[in-house]
Design a protein that fits this description.
The complex is a heterodimer of chains A (960) and B (501).
Chain A (H helix, E strand, L loop, with lengths): L1 H15 L8 E10 L10 E4 L5 E3 L5 E7 L1 E8 L5 E9 L4 E9 L8 E3 L2 H5 L3 H9 L4 E5 H6 L5 H5 L5 E4 L3 E4 L7 E5 L24 E7 L13 E7 L7 E10 L10 E2 L28 H4 L6 H12 L7 E2 L5 E14 L2 E27 L10 E26 L3 E24 L6 E26 L4 E26 L12 E24 L2 E26 L28 E4 L8 E20 L2 E19 L6 E23 L3 E12 L10 E3 L6 E3 L5 E3 L4 E4 L6 E14 L3 E13 L2 E5 L6 E6 L3 E13 L10 E15 L2 H9 L10 E2 L7 E11 L4 E10 L3 E3 L8 E3 L4 E10 L5 E8 L6 E5 L7 E6 L4 E9 L2
Chain B lengths: L1 H20 L10 E3 L4 E5 L3 E10 L4 E8 L2 E7 L5 E9 L8 E10 L4 E11 L4 E4 L6 E4 L4 E4 L2 E4 L4 E4 L4 E4 L9 E4 L4 E5 L6 E5 L25 E4 L13 E2 L11 E2 L9 E9 L3 E4 L2 E3 L2 E4 L6 E8 L6 E4 L4 E8 L6 E4 L5 E8 L6 E6 L9 E9 L5 E6 L4 E9 L13 E3 L2 H9 L2 E9 L6 H4 L8 E3 L19 H4 L8
Parallel strand pairs in B: 2-8, 9-11, 10-13, 11-14, 12-15, 13-16, 14-17, 15-18, 16-21, 17-21, 18-24, 21-25, 24-26, 25-27, 26-28, 27-29, 28-30, 29-31, 30-32, 31-33, 32-34, 33-35, 35-36
Antiparallel strand pairs in B: 1-3, 3-6, 4-5, 4-7, 7-8, 19-20, 22-23
Classes of the chains: A mainly beta (960), B mainly beta (501).
């Protein structure tokens, strides 16, 4: 159904485009950019020297010329700008010559003509550099011209090349080491929920690079951006008008010797449509449609009554597969298809693009460890105490199917873009662990079996338009974008047998089944007006506008546990729910289900929010070499909650849980120093708001870790209720941001910059353990925090070593951060109570989730003539506090993961139709680890995974 | 109640209309009675009223007589006043159930004129069950003539006082995990469950058809567990918590419910009296290590009296102590799903005279843990008879276990060598072993009857065997006095104690 829609669109698109180009003629398409502002130049005349043929750039700076095959010279002229000449533009019949990113500078001498070779235009990232140099706010990015050269197949791979960015798990982007809460990812400027709506960031690996025009990372706030970012905003802009007609097929395969073709990998029979990334309905909850679910005590006295039979029938609908089987694991593979073009219908330009991506990836982790260690009770013991240890192996199979379709229309003064995005993914996980519990009050060993499936889907529609009014003096932009996002975890299954007796009981935990579902609808709309004018004889802009965001989320968890009565087991998880073991009239103390979510379910809730924003922003030059952006944004944000606590004593019916009116002033100054240096200064206020889940009464037990997430609406008291540890009143965090950056652009594509940033957090939100129950975590406002960072960036050609090395670039981005949080009184007391002898407990600590340093560095090689691009990249993130310890639990930290990756791409043939690439990930075979730390004690593993080395090969062929 | 008020109102209105119409000119002034409803319906055991009768007698009122079904039940004298009032109330007894009671009110004035009013009270069947859905504050009494249904997690809150009459049956509704039904005495609340040997108080599931006066369940086997939660008492006595915090959340209650906290610094804290109670078919599991036991005692102080307790077929432990100072006398645990007796967090009271009958799912008869924080205290467990099962272990003493264990008799446990190490009593961990060596953990006068061929040091490991004497089956000279359980416990009534000495 979902796919058929996409297929229909493809057919329409493929069938509808007219074949325009005549046999003898070729096409030149290009974009002209103002070097001074980094923005497109409107009205530049482009002439083919020696002919009458020419064009004028439109508001996007785009032009198009149809001309006979041959070698031509183009001449670009614009009032008060230096004329640019491009000789040797080779036009072939029926082909498109793309000359994007033609830069024009304001005139320096009447006679000066700048000559650029057509070859050079194709090979630089000059445009983006130019944007970067001149942008008023701090931004970095990567554009489609780069994607064309390098082999990054998806946005996650590409964005790694942007400075100050780290990619977690190959999917999620973090800026300057700030955690997910402080980084935001948007698509075409629209806030869309990702496949994991609890995160601010969209999974980046779902976007193939051939549908992306550019990715821009803004690290400083300007008033037209949403205020809820602190570290930065990543914006993925999809293409509207492909420069040339393209149709690509790609095939890729990935092999990891640790994970693939392993005969001992785990797998489980799933649904018939698992290979498409969604469940076929076979994992549906057995109580679907049952209004009044019978419980065991209702039917124990009368198993064969109507209700008893209903109970027995539901019981027998639970899938009896509780464990995986050992099977050889397949390797990864992927397929891609994309098509795009632009054509004219009576002066009106139409562009379309469409892409389909399919990926099927398998992971298998051997010797995985997940542990829990605690502080010993006496303060003179300096050895962490093992509480729970689990070790074993697990497999995941992840299928992703995504499609994106775009249609764009451009007339002289209007551009309209329609974009449809649909992504679905399904992940099947099978695990087998040995579990040793020596936690307080328990002591046992068990075999644990997990079978899980998670399906996610995202559908986003975007309609956006730009109108150029009064000869381009005014620009009106508007967007409307609805999104539907769903997550279902149908039938998470956890089973433990005690070792060696193979018994199941409360000590090891009862077999559990969980169904989770989340559905979120959102609507985004905005209107921006920009007025271009001259100030101090420099271009200036006044922008104002308004944005509206509405989100509505329904959340539900239903879980069952199984009391096994007096049933005996042999340790085989798939022989637990045997017919002869199940409750019946003849077997009254047999296995029965217990629905733990009735009658009261705190994990069934609805939340919605509305955020209305308005801003005004002025960009002007108060002094000839000083550019300023001064702006003010205002946001009225309200969030509502419908749900109940576990005892049903607190019932919220669309109750307002957050109501904030905030003003966000912003100031950005750019002082140009000479031709190629800038000094930037930025100051702004931003906000970080709690999520839907955080502002709730939810009590979500993770049966694997035994941890319980508790919504922030619950208070916690101590000392018989006289001391309030948490008042249940979770507030957004206001952040004041300051940035200073000096940057120097030297030569082609080279940069050196140094930034200092300082952020003050007013009571940031962190996950905090309950003092009365260390297994329960709650989001709470903690003490004030601050982040002070230094960021250095260098991109340099190695031609300074030897001219022959001009195609080698050295890249380094280093971020060092010192973060500080004032501990809450309860945290400080808890730390004092459990301090070791000689340990001095400070009242401050580093911020959870904030990396102390990030190093991104690499050497790349780029030879356009041979079509070879290669790079060796190294990334490491300093040990980061991820869980704050409380009571006898101690802090956990990540262990630096030294990622050394290599990639090489080569394009083949005269027309570069064939592109091959190879990626090797984790050359050092490093492990992903987290540890428990205690004063003067040896670290112990919280988790340890060995991802192994992965080699992937991909081939892309351009049919057009 | 609201219904009665509105009936009354209608009645008064009707009388007023009638009286104004029926006014006749006579030399002798009339006597009239208003304010008594013509009819009402209540359930047996419920009380009508009080309603106030207004009597008008211009000639001077002498007396008012109330008759029930023709028999005079009350007379009130008046001293010739022209008006008078009479407060009428009636509590229907069981014998009234299903009847229409006719009450006649007759007022007489000085000249002998009479005014009458009639009330017909329809009495329905007695209320036999009361569903409890909200927490208990103030003083509340549960009586033996009714069955009390726990409709959720019911707390006796701080300052609340729940009295349960002997012979009362309390049943928990279905519910599992965090939805388990339970009776919880929060810190500062008190329970007075004064059962007797003749009329014990029984806590069970709604699935149990047991009625007041019965001991054995008429329809549930004694090994069915997990049908509801359990009974939890929380107090303010010292306990030893991890991280040395002053109070923590009891197992089985989500941390979000702050009524579930226990611990404090009042050693003689008084949570009330629990005598002759039997808790059956309960136990709920929120997550691993987070369960409701049959009887959970968290930080309960020594001012609390707990005597004669029975726990049968609980999904988790029978009785579990989390710190506190309370003493328990006479306890019997049969078919516990996990451990029979479980102690944690430096409980410092005494368990005196107990019997454990292990079932097929029982893990340890005794699971003894040490303090979790730096506060140390120890308990005494004495005079107990522990009957094993092929899958059960005698005991596990661990995590720095401390205390005195004396006059215990173990019988019926399997040979550890042939049962995957079941059937033994072991001291786990260096801290527990050190405590055993230093005498902080000690065993005195232990007797046992082992499976044939099992050596003492195989069953009683880590050196404990030196305190143990082997005796012939039920020839023990130490152990429980089973007479304490005779008559009122299902275990005794089911004959499970017959073979014991």
């Amino acid at each position: 159904m979902k796919i058929s829609l996409l297929v229909t669109i493809t057919i329409i698109l493929l069938g509808a485009f007219p074949i325009y180009s005549s046999a003898q003629n070729g096409t030149i398409r290009g974009t002209v950019i103002d070097e001074g502002t980094g923005e497109p130049l409107f009205g530049v005349s482009v002439l083919v020297v020696g002919t009458q043929i020419g064009a004028v750039t439109d508001f996007d700076g785009d032009f198009e010329i149809q001309i006979g095959a041959g070698v031509h010279t183009l001449k670009l002229s614009y009032v008060s700008y230096n004329t640019v000449e491009i000789p040797n533009a080779k036009v072939e019949a029926g082909k498109v010559l793309v000359l994007d990113n033609l830069v024009m500078a304001e005139f320096t001498s009447d006679l000066e003509t700048v000559t650029i070779s057509a070859e050079a235009i194709r090979t630089t990232e000059a445009a983006l550099m130019s944007v970067k140099r001149n942008a008023s706010n701090l931004m970095d990015g990567i554009s489609s011209s780069t994607f064309r050269q390098i082999g990054d197949g998806d946005a996650a791979g590409a964005i790694k090349r942007v400075t100050g960015v780290s990619v977690e798990g190959g999917k999620y982007v973090y800026i300057r080491g700030l955690g997910d809460r402080y980084t935001k990812t948007v698509l075409n400027g629209v806030d869309i929920p990702g496949l994991d709506p609890d995160r601010n960031t969209i999974q980046m690996d779902i976007f193939p690079t051939n549908v992306i025009d550019n990715i821009v990372v803004s690290k400083s706030f300007t008033a037209e951006l949403p205020a809820d970012f602190t570290g930065g905003v990543v914006n993925l802009e999809t293409k509207d008008f492909p420069e040339e007609k393209t149709m690509n097929f790609s095939v890729s395969g990935g092999y990891n010797p640790n994970m693939h073709f392993n005969p001992n990998a785990l797998s489980v029979g799933g649904g018939k449509t698992d290979w498409l990334g969604f469940d076929d309905g076979g994992r549906e909850i057995p109580t679907a449609g049952v209004a009044d679910i019978p419980q065991f005590p209702d039917v124990i006295g009368s198993p064969n009554s109507e209700r008893g039979q209903q109970f027995q029938s539901i019981l027998r609908k639970f899938n009896p597969t509780l464990g995986g089987t050992r099977q050889r694991s397949p390797m990864d593979f992927g397929l891609g298809y994309s098509v795009g073009d632009q054509f004219n219908i009576k002066d009106k330009k139409i562009g379309y693009n469409f892409a389909l991506t399919y990926r099927n990836e398998t992971e298998y982790y051997k010797e995985a460890e997940f542990n829990l260690f605690g502080k010993p009770r006496t303060s003179d013991v300096f050895e962490l105490e093992a509480l729970e240890r689990s070790s074993g192996d697990y497999s995941t199979n992840n299928v992703l199917l995504g499609g994106i379709a775009g249609l764009a229309y451009k007339s002289d003064f209007t551009k309209i873009k329609l974009n449809l995005l649909r992504i679905q993914s399904g992940e099947s996980k099978v695990a087998q662990f040995n579990f040793i519990n020596t936690n307080l009050g328990a002591e046992f060993e068990a075999d644990q079996y997990n079978v899980e499936y998670s399906e996610r889907a995202l559908t986003n529609l975007l309609l956006s338009a730009s109108h150029f009014i009064d000869g381009g003096k005014w620009q009106l932009n508007w967007k409307v974008s609805p999104t539907l996002s769903t997550i279902n975890d149908p039938d998470v299954r956890i089973t433990r047998f005690r070792v060696p007796t193979n018994t199941i009981g409360t000590e090891v935990g009862l077999p559990t089944r969980i169904w989770r579902s989340l559905e979120e609808q959102s609507l985004f709309g905005n209107v921006d007006l920009t007025k271009s004018y001259m100030f101090n004889s420099k271009a200036a802009k006044l922008k104002f506008g308004s944005a509206y965001v509405y989100k509505n989320r329904d959340f539900l968890i239903e879980s069952f546990q199984f009391n096994v009565g007096n049933t005996q087991f042999d340790g085989d998880p798939n022989r637990v729910l045997l017919e002869e073991n199940l409750f019946s009239a003849e077997n009254r103390n047999g296995i029965r289900y217990e629905p733990t979510f009735i009658p009261i379910n705190p994990n069934q809730y609805n939340s919605n929010l509305a955020n209305i924003g308005a801003y005004v922003s002025n960009e002007f030059n108060p002094l000839p070499n000083l550019k300023a952006i001064v702006g003010l944004r205002v946001e009225q944000y309200t969030q509502y909650y419908t749900g109940t606590n576990q005892t049903n004593t607190i019932i919220f019916d669309n109750e307002k849980v957050l109501d904030d009116l905030d003003f966000f002033p912003t100031l950005n100054l750019v002082q140009a120093i000479g031709q190629n240096q800038n000094l930037r200064l930025a100051a702004s206020r931003t906000i970080a708001r709690p999520s839907f889940k955080e502002l709730s009464f939810a009590e979500i037990l993770d049966p694997i870790t035994g941890r319980t997430f508790i919504g922030a609406l619950f208070p916690e008291t101590s000392e018989g209720g006289t001391e309030i540890l948490w008042d249940g009143n979770l507030q957004a965090t206001r952040i004041n941001n300051f940035d200073v950056r000096w940057e120097k652009f030297t030569g082609r594509n080279e940069i050196f910059s140094a930034s200092i940033f300082y952020k003050m957090f007013d009571r940031p939100i962190e996950m905090v353990q309950f003092l009365s129950d260390p297994g329960s975590f709650q989001p709470r406002n903690v003490g004030n925090g601050s982040v002070l960072g230094l960021e250095l960036e260098l991109r340099k050609s190695l031609d300074l070593i030897s001219p022959s090395m001009k195609n080698f670039f050295f890249n380094a981005n280093l971020t060092f951060v010192e973060s500080k949080i004032d501990m809450s009184e309860s945290e400080f007391r808890s730390r004092e109570l459990t301090a070791r002898d000689g340990e001095n407990v400070s009242r401050t600590r580093q911020m959870a989730g904030q990396a102390p340093y990030i190093i991104n560095t690499g050497i790349s090689y780029n030879n356009m003539i041979s079509g070879i691009e290669a790079g060796l990249f190294y990334n490491v993130q300093g040990s980061t506090l991820n869980y704050v310890g409380f009571g006898n639990r101690t802090d956990t930290y990540t262990v630096p993961f030294h990622a050394l990756n290599f990639n090489i791409n080569k394009t083949w043939g005269k027309e570069d139709r064939l592109q091959t690439s190879m990626n090797v990930v984790n050359l050092l075979d490093d492990k992903k680890q987290e540890v428990f730390r205690m004063y003067n004690a040896e670290e112990q593993f919280f988790s340890s995974l060995r991802p192994g080395r992965r080699v992937s090969l991909s081939v892309r062929y351009a049919i057009w | 109640m609201k219904k009665i008020t509105s009936l009354l109102f209608m009645f008064v209105a009707a009388i007023m209309v009638l009286t104004s119409c029926g006014d006749e000119e006579t030399p002798d002034a009339q006597v009239s009675i208003t304010g008594i409803p013509a009819t009402a319906t209540i359930e047996a055991g419920a009380t009508l009223g009080p309603v106030t009768a207004q009597i008008s007698a211009p000639d001077g009122l002498v007396s008012l007589t109330v008759k029930k079904d023709g028999a005079s039940i009350d007379t009130k004298q008046f001293n010739g006043a022209t008006t008078g009032t009479y407060e009428f109330t009636y509590t229907a007894v069981a014998a009234d159930a299903g009847k229409n009671l006719v009450f006649e009110f007759e007022a007489v004035d000085r000249d002998g004129s009479k005014g009458t009013a009639t009330h017909v009270l329809t009495v329905g069947a007695a209320v036999t069950s009361v569903r409890i859905t909200s927490n208990i504050t103030g003083e509340v009494t549960w009586t033996a003539d009714k069955t009390y249904i726990l409709g959720g997690r019911i707390f006796v809150l701080n300052g609340g006082k729940l009295t349960i009459e002997a012979g009362t049956v309390i049943k928990g509704e279905a519910g599992s995990g965090a939805n388990a039904t339970a009776l919880i005495v929060a810190r500062g609340g008190q329970i007075f469950a004064n059962g007797t040997a003749q009329a014990p108080i029984i806590f069970t599931s709604v699935a149990d058809e047991i009625e007041s006066g019965m001991i054995a369940s008429p329809n549930l086997d004694p090994d069915l567990d997990g049908l509801w939660g359990g009974v939890i008492v929380l107090g303010r006595a010292p306990s030893s918590f991890a991280g040395d915090v002053s109070e923590i959340q009891i197992e089985g209650i989500p941390a979000s419910d702050t009524n579930g906290r226990y611990g404090g610094n009042i050693p003689n804290d008084n949570s009330g009296v629990i005598k002759y109670i039997s808790i059956r078919h309960g136990g709920a599991n929120i997550g691993e290590g987070n369960e409701i036991n049959g009887l959970t005692l968290g930080g309960v102080g020594s001012g609390t009296v707990i005597e004669n307790v029975e726990v049968i077929a609980n999904q988790d432990d029978g009785i579990e102590w989390f710190g506190g100072t309370v003493n328990v006398k006479n306890a019997v645990v049969w078919n516990s799903g996990d451990d029979a007796l479980d102690t944690d967090q430096a409980w410092s009271g005494t368990m005196d005279n107990f019997i454990v009958i292990c079932g097929p799912t029982t893990d340890h008869a005794l699971e003894i843990d040490g303090p979790e924080g730096s506060f140390n205290a120890a308990h005494t467990v004495k005079n107990g008879t522990i009957v094993g099962h092929p899958a059960a272990e005698m005991g596990d003493f661990r995590d720095g276990a401390r205390g005195t264990f004396e006059n215990l008799y173990f019988i019926g446990f399997p040979d550890p060598a042939t049962s995957n190490g079941r059937g033994d009593l072991s001291i786990s961990g260096d801290k527990s072993l050190a405590n055993l060596a230093s005498g902080v953990l000690k065993f005195n006068n232990i007797q046992t009857t082992l499976a044939s061929g099992v050596a003492l040091d195989v069953a009683f490991r880590n050196g404990v065997h030196t305190s143990v004497t082997a005796v012939a089956a039920n020839e023990n000279t130490v152990g429980a006095d089973k007479s304490a359980f005779a008559g009122w416990s299902w275990t005794a009534v089911a004959g499970k104690l017959d073979a014991l000495k």
